[in-house]
UniProtKB/TrEMBL annotation:
The keyword Metal-binding does not apply. This is DUF5317 domain-containing protein. The keyword Membrane applies. InterPro entries: DUF5317. The lineage of its organism: Bacteria, Bacillati, Bacillota, Clostridia, Eubacteriales. It holds the Pfam family DUF5317. The chain crosses the membrane at residues 30-48, 57-76, 82-103, 146-168. Keywords: Membrane, Transmembrane, Transmembrane helix. It comes from the Bacteria.
Amino acid sequence: MFVLALVAGIILGFIFKGNLKNLSNIKFRGIYLIIFGFIIEFIINILITRGIITSSFFTYLADGIMYVLIFIFVFINKENHYILIMGIGFLLNAIAIFTNGGIMPVSEYAIKITGITNNISKAGLYGIMDGQTHFKILCDFIPVKLIGSFVVSIGDVISAIGMMFLVITSMKKEYN
């Protein structure tokens, strides 16, 4: 989803007469925080996918650390409104994950629409939405069939919108 948002942001940036080289001038504080956060998520997903670990207290803790790092990054860059928008999306995802035992519930209906056939619980920190699912509106229930098929949440959409606007406005911004 975020790769699509990045690509869409760059395309729209060009349409609005922005310059790709302006992206190199974006200044973030604590960029290492977000990098470490996503490295944690990447490693946990690999370990789960390969069957080395299962969703457990360890993965719940790892998710907690990842989100703390992301929220610190958002906080120290709060003057950038688009980072705040992305942070709101991440917060909505965190609510869904942490109120559902450390997994992101996914709509079975959306899975069928997208044609995803693999076992969703093996694909990472996900599970099928059921009657016990909390905050269903914040879970992955939006089917997307563009370049690939996947299911996203409202939080993902909000974060993607923040990323697109960050890219578009940064491409249009003139730096001295």
